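User: Sequence for FYB2 protein below. C-alpha cells please.
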Amino acid sequence: RGKDEKYKVRMPKLQMVREYKDKRKSIDDVERNIFKFKRSSEEKSKKMEKEEKLFRETFMYEKEIRVLATATAGCSVPSQRRADLPVTAGEQLDVIEAVQGHAVICRNAQGRYGYVLVEHLNFR
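Assistant: C-alpha cells for FYB2 protein:
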C-alpha cells in the first residue's frame, strides 16, 4: 500500500433518518408538480384563446362572452357542419347565447364553441 492510504482518515457516514428522507422526497415532488402544472395551464390558456378567436371569426361574435347557463348533454351527437359542436352524453356545456329557434351556442370543457340543439341538452 502507498503512503497516502496509510494516513487516510475514514469519516463515518452520517445516517439520515428515513422519515426525513421521505419528507424531503415528497417536498421535491410537489415542487416539480407545481412547475408542470403551470406549464400545462399556460398551454391550455393559449389553446383557449385560439379557440375563442376562431369562434369570433366563424360566428362573427363581437359581444363579450358570458355564460348564461350550464347544461348537460343528454345524448351523444356528432357534428353535421363545421359550426356544430360535437357532444358526448353527460358532457357539461356552458350556454353562451340562444341565437336560433332550436339551437344555442355552447362551449365545452376543451374551449370549443358551436351550435347545439336545445332538445339534446338537459338544463338544471
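The first helix runs from residue 3 to 6.
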